[in-house]
Amino acid sequence: MPSLQVKRVEIEPTSEIEPRSREKRAIIVFGRGVGVEVEDLNIARDEQKRQKVIDSVKSGARVDLMKPTHVLEKAVVRDPSKGNFGPEDHPTFNWPVDVTARPNSTWLTEEPGNSRYAGAEYNVKAAAELVRQTLVDGKDPVVFMAAGRTEDMKKWAPDGWSQGMINAKELVNHLINGTKGLERVTFVFEPENENSYHDAMVSLIGAQEMGCKEATLVTVGIHMKRSRILTEEVRKGMENSDRFQGQEIIKVDYRASEPFVMKESEEKKAEVRVAAESLGHNVTLAREMNGVKGMKSGNYHSQYDDGSQVTSCNKRIDVMSVEEVRNFK
Question: How does pLDDT run across 267-315, given as a tens digit for each residue?
């Protein structure tokens, strides 16, 4: 029977680390929106300056410029003839839209027609809060950074970096100040994932094989319906697979990231509300509902629910501690 290819970094035990006998809880972080972020968007418009920044990131000298997407971002529409439902990419540079007109903002201050609802930074913030809650509950968080390394990021990201690692770096930055018990947190990366079905399947198989009985999947609300449908399809595949015969399959609950962000401040509440009324939100929602319709009609059927994909899955996962994520270069 195939199994996930686990690359595990052993952590030397110290007297301060308690035995790992507590119950584990999986936190599955969806969202692959990442890019190069500069303070002045004019740099991204100037071809020479733009390439200089890309080269410095690609070489590893400026990995600090790789960031999760903001709530509204400009997208690259690959086939405009297909309208709002054609293939799209996130550009190399983050092009955030300033939905609340912040003073002295360097973001785009007018929403372009190709803006889309993104929000990877929201998922990161929500995941950080879920980690804290899990620690307070006396359980050990196992954080699955589901996004892999897609083709479009290979032209600017250093070798070995995945979208999940970029988001994890930001997540750890939210955790390191004032969060106790970080030695109990485990990160799991899925560098070979290519689509959302892989994200769900590898995360759930990994969580099941690591002994987690329950999981929370976090993503922005606009992606939640499709994420839930495909994740439950994978769970059904796990029930039908010989791989987990006789086992109780991990239970999943689903949390939108926006409510976590809205707790931060009145400014963040306003940001979420304005973004929900934007053109980018409406177009992204239409794309999501089109995908959901296809899944329900059978046009977008994944064939994951019969268990064959789960049985044969042997994708690689990388297991790291918080300190190892901080030191990753």
Answer: 999 999 999 999 999 999 999 998 888 777 765 556 688 889 999 999 9
Task: Give pLDDT, residue 11.
Answer: 32
Distances in Å between the alpha carbon of 55 and those of 50, 65, 68, 198? 9, 12, 19, 30
Within-domain flag for 271: yes
Cα torsion through 174, 177, 183, 184, rounded to 10: -60
Report the predicted TM-score, pTM, of the whole model to 2 decimal places: 0.90
User: In this structure, what token pair is assigned to residue 123?
Assistant: 């998922």
Provide the token pair at 232: 């439950």
Q: What angle do CA 290, 295, 300 make, to 5 degrees?
A: 95
- Domain span at residue 147? 5-9+23-37+121-327
Q: Which strand (E) or helix (H) includes residue 195? A: none
The 8 Å CB, 24+ separation contacts for 96-103 are 96/69, 96/70, 96/71, 96/72, 97/70, 97/72, 97/73, 97/278, 97/280, 99/71, 99/72, 99/271, 99/274, 99/275, 99/278, 100/267, 100/270, 100/271, 100/274
The H or E element that residue 71 is part of is none
168 domain residue, yes or no: yes
Closest of 121, 239, 131, 128 to residue 184, by C-alpha: 131
What is each CA distance from 103 to 98, 100, 106, 112, 135, in whole angstroms?
A: 10, 9, 9, 19, 38
235 CB burial (10 A radius; 0-12, 13-18, 19+): buried
Name which of 154-158, 168-172, 210-214, 286-290 the model is least confident about.
286-290
Can you give the length of the chain in residues? 329
How many structural domains does the chain have? Answer: 1
pLDDT, position 81: 76
d(CA 164, CA 270): 28
Buried b / exposed e along 36-48 (16+ C-beta atoms within 10 A) = bbbeebebbeeee
User: Is 190 among the domain residues?
Assistant: yes
Residue 270 identity: A
The tokens describing 32, both together, are 């692959």
Tokens (6 digits) for 239: 């029930």
What pLDDT does residue 306 have?
86
